[in-house]
Amino acid sequence: MPLLTAPLDDDPDLREGDVDWLHAVVGDWQLLADLSFGDLVLWYPVAGPDESGRGFVALAQARPFTSQTALHRDIVGSRVRADLKSLVDQAWRTGEPAVTAPSAYAPDSSMRVTVWPVVRERRTIGVLTVHQNLTGQRTPSRLELVYRESAHRLLAMVSRGQWPDPDDPVGGPHRGSPRVGDGLLLLTADGRVDFATPNAVSAFRRLGETDPLEGRSLARVVTDLQDERRPVDESLPLVLTGKAAARAELQVRAVSLTLRTVPLREGAERIGALVLLRDVTELRRREQQLVGKDATIREIHHRVKNNLQTVGSLLRMQSRRMTSPEAKRGLEQAMRRVDTIALVHETLSHGLDGQVDMDALLGRQFRLAVEVAGDGRPVTTEYSGGFGHLPSDLATPLALVINELATNAVEHGTAPEGGHVGLTARRYHLPAGERLEVRLWDSGASAPEPGPDAGPGPSADRTGAGVGPEPGRDTGLGLQIVRTLVAGDLQGTIDWHRRPEGGTEVVILAPVPER
Questions:
Q1: Which residues does 50 contact at the CB level (< 8 Å), separation at least 6?
Q2: I need a labelling partner for 343 at 20 to 30 A (CA). Which of 11, 42, 79, 480 fits?
């Protein structure tokens, strides 16, 4: 639930932890709205527009799921109405709750407003108003009476600084946190069920409990249902007895319930507790299916990686049997490409969030490609900038492009006595979207210009055009692969140019898909 924090900024009257307390109230006050059948508004004092004195601004607003809303307009950021200001100011000054008659807004109004101070460490740090629509009001059922009485007790705890409970963080560790309408039990101080809503009764019926719950110890009921061989959530005893704010999950047979306890107190005495519960069986079943699918996908990537490594080993064995230098070189190049794809699948097998940490992948792949292509020569590498996280479908083409360019840089852009190859990447924003810029360069070959008998192709061009050909010259399978992957898979552009300090640099520009 969002909280308007601008009026709280730089307020000298607020102490450390006060804003966090207000966030905690707003984060968990849907429970109050549902139990009270009313809209909630949190107010905070601000300076008046003139000499009229202190005013109040709405920091947050909540509507109930259990009844119709009383406030159809969003009033966050608005000043309190003049006819309610005196009561809000009174609650702020005195720290005592107040209530309006239905005629507070107009003689024919059907709205009743109760005003409660929000207290922390015996100091009022906000004011909470509960707006209830009395239109069509009838004789309330026992469920409605229990809800309203529970809301009153919780609001009284708010006015004493006893709720929200710091030991019950908003959200909790369990997915599928229950709400009032999912099922509610009212416990006495000794842990017996005083009241159970129909949804709560239905949930226990699904667990296998057919006897009435009221008047019985909740801990005893659950103990009789549980399988002694199944592990028990360590927070479950606290939830079942209502002695502390806690959350737990209960599994009986194939049914899963998530439970949350809200202790009710009057001063230092615990007078009972609310236990909210929700049947999350279907949610847990779907989670298990997703876990199984994730494990399957991981295993597929792992097996693809193993198979590709096997193919690479077969190519390596075959290359050793080759007597033709051209055939041997072709097999070695194919082997490096297969190994690059295998490394991508190894990375994908460790994460399935749809995004790949390309810096960890390409930093390793770049240095490996340079080392292999150097074949023992002292070729140093430089890696800077960052690719960031990119979609998994870009990982393979980008890794292949870097592999091909790094290999060409070493083979055709460094001297026999060694050289230097660098890679840098950066991401930047344009009006059309985010862009990725990749630059890969070499130090240049120190050999003289080739003679008239030199053959064609990059291997003959020893003047520094290592990472690619001169503009307009498209030679070699590797460069064809690079151009195809950049234009097709990456939807980008590629360009070569000579560096003033020597060597050649290739620049790749590609769009980054939105997450």
A1: none
A2: 480
161 contact partners, CB below 8 Å, separation of at least 6: 119, 120, 121, 122
Q: Which distant-in-sequence residues (6+ apart) come within 8 Å of 508 by Cβ?
A: 401, 436, 437, 438, 439, 486, 490, 492, 493, 494
pLDDT digit string (tens) for 151-202? 999 999 999 999 998 877 554 444 557 999 999 999 999 999 999 999 999 9
Tokens of 314: 């077969």
Q: Are strands 98-99 and 111-120 parallel, antiparallel or unpaired?
A: antiparallel
- Tell me, rounded to whole angstroms, the distance of Cα 420 from its chain centroid: 41
Q: CATH topology of 6-159 equal to that of 180-279?
A: yes
Q: Homologous superfamily of 180-279 in CATH?
A: PAS domain (3.30.450.20)
Asked if 356 contacts 347 with a C-beta cutoff of 8 angstroms, the reply is: yes
Sign of CA dihedral 203, 209, 210, 215: negative
Distance between terminal CA atoms of the chain? 24
pLDDT of res. 450: 38
Among 353, 339, 351, smallest CA distance to 306 is for 339
pLDDT the model gives residue 199: 95
CA–CA gap between residue 275 and residue 240 (Å, rounded): 8
| Cα–Cα distance for residue pair 310/308, rounded to 1 Å | 5
Rounded-to-integer distance, Cα 369 and Cα 377, Å = 13
Q: For the chain, which residues make up each domain, given as ranges?
A: 6-159, 180-279, 285-352, 356-515
DSSP 50: S
> Tell me, what's the pLDDT at 515?
66
* Eight-state DSSP code of residue 217: B
Is the torsion defined by CA of 189, 192, 195, 201 positive or negative? positive
Report yes or no: 128 and 39 within 8 Å, Cβ to Cβ. no
Distance between CA atoms of residues 200 and 39, nearest Å: 25
Distances (CA, A) of 209 to 199, 201, 225, 355: 13, 9, 7, 46
Backbone angles phi, psi at 208, to 5 degrees: 110, 5
Beta strands in 280-407 (DSSP E): 355-357, 379-385, 389-391
The Cβ of residue 423 has, within 10 Å, a number of other Cβ atoms equal to 25
Look up tokens 């932890």; give the residue. Answer: 17
317 φ, ψ (degrees, to nearest 5) = -65, -40
Specify the pLDDT at position 107: 45
Pick the CATH number of 6-159 from 3.30.450.280, 3.20.20.10, 3.30.930.10, 3.50.50.60: 3.30.450.280
Query: 356-515: CATH homologous superfamily?
Result: Histidine kinase-like ATPase, C-terminal domain (3.30.565.10)
Facing residues of 187 across strands? Answer: 193, 273
